[in-house]
Amino acid sequence: MQSAVRVAIGLVFVLLAAPREAHASLLSPELEDKLATFLAIFILFLVPVVLIVLFWMVHILPEQIAHKRNHPQFEAIRTLCLLSLVFGGLLWPIAWIWAYSKPVLHKMAYGTDKLHEHEHEAEVEAVTVGSLNLRDRSVGLHERLARLEAQNIPDAELSKIRADVEALESKFAREGVR
């Protein structure tokens, strides 16, 4: 019994020695308010922007992969990636698979499964250069025609080719290209 009394007296002294105000934090209440305000602004404004940018960057990955691999359907994959952004990512796995797939039907139709943009740009540039390039082509056609005449090719075929060349020259002359 005496030990119980001693414990009770010791407990009273400990409670009297303890501080009267208890704080759950090491920071002052004013500093806690400033920290909470900063965190709220950070979470409400910066986190959504970061999440939107990450969402966008993940959704254009198939487009970047298709561009790197010279995929012939690159533009369609790019469109599917944009549609995937609109539909909340539902089409993204299809774009990802499409970017890594080999275009079998494209190879059957065009003889290649790669997009050769550089050659296409060179062809477009050659067509848009104007009269100088067309004159060079017509001279090339006349030379080729002369070589065919030197060989023993039937006159009917040569006359057809000659008529086609003259028709093309007159067409370009009418359009003012020459």
Report what the structure shows:
With 178 residues, the protein is mainly α. It has two domains: 37-110, no CATH class; 117-174, no CATH class. 76% of the residues lie in helices and 0% in strands. The protein contains nine helices and no strands. It has helices spanning 2-17, 29-59, 61-68, 74-86, 92-100, 104-110, 117-128, 131-150, 155-174. Helix 3 (61-68) runs antiparallel to helix 4 (74-86), helix 3 (61-68) packs parallel to helix 5 (92-100) and helix 8 (131-150) runs antiparallel to helix 9 (155-174). The longest helix has 31 residues, at 29-59. It is rod-shaped. Residues 126-132 have low confidence and may be disordered.
Q: Give the assembly state of these chains.
A: single chain
Mean pLDDT: 78
Rg over C-alpha atoms, rounded to the nearest angstrom: 40 Å
Main sheet specs: none
How large is the count of helical segments? 9
Instruction: Tell me the series of helices and strands, N- to C-terminal.
Output: HHHHHHHHH
Question: How would you describe the shape?
Answer: rod-shaped
Q: Low-confidence parts, pLDDT < 50 over ≥5 residues? A: 126-132
Number of structural units classed as domains: 2
Helical content class: over 70%
